[in-house]
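REQUEST ID: PR-0412
SUBMITTED BY: lab tech R.K.
PRIORITY: routine
TASK: structure prediction, single protein chain
INPUT:
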Amino acid sequence: MKKFPAENMTVPDSAVFCDGVTLSLGKRQILGGVTFAANKGEITVLLGKNGSGKSTLFRCISGIAKPDGGRIYLGGIPVDALSNNERAKKVAVMPQYLPQLRMTVGELIAMGRSPYHGLSGRLTAADKRIVQFAASETDSARYSDRSVGTLSGGERQLAFLAMALAQDTPLVLLDEPTSSLDSEYRLKVFATIKKLRGDKTFIATVHNLDEAAAIADRIIVLHEGKTLFAGTRDEFLKSGVSCDVFSLKPVVVTDGDGNRMTIFRPKD
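STATUS: complete
OUTPUT:
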């Protein structure tokens, strides 16, 4: 497991640095000392069984929840030193459970600009270009006049991703962005993330290890609220953590086009 600097040492120049983050709800400890760094311009995937603390950690990184101990830095700045508006300009969040809203898709995507103008603010020409870019990148522009409530699950997922992208933050958190989606929409979501990697930093919680191996630059594994593993994708595949935690082993296969890919199968 990669070692990180102690609290009194220099904070690394990373998009996100979590240093010994703890959080309890009542007598139940949710996070028990999470430490990892997410590099700028990369896709970091958070893995862990249900209840391992992934969604709670996202709430802490975005500033929605306040840790009991440890600290979180966004681009070297402590999250708790930023105002709500300042955080909204640094990190966008696409939650796992998306609300049904009575508005058009175009209006939903434009809400991503609210940190800059407020919910009732008028969009500038620059704002409109950002909104149009987000709609185009997610293939949401073609139904921008439709009500959000009329969309299929995959269309709604892409529309909310477009709203997060329209927020134009350096960091985007995606909580199970492909949950309950068919293969067509999973590919669209991941293609969008991979295309924008470099310009933005993405941290995504992913349930499927095959998908994690396909998109991740770095992988973090949470287990019982603690950081069990933090390293590159290749380090994860060699670590044996997938067998220990998920009872799955990585297997390299070749598809019909001759492309090599890693999938996970039950360990012997």
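NOTES: DSSP finds ten helices and twelve strands in the chain.
REVIEWED BY: pending
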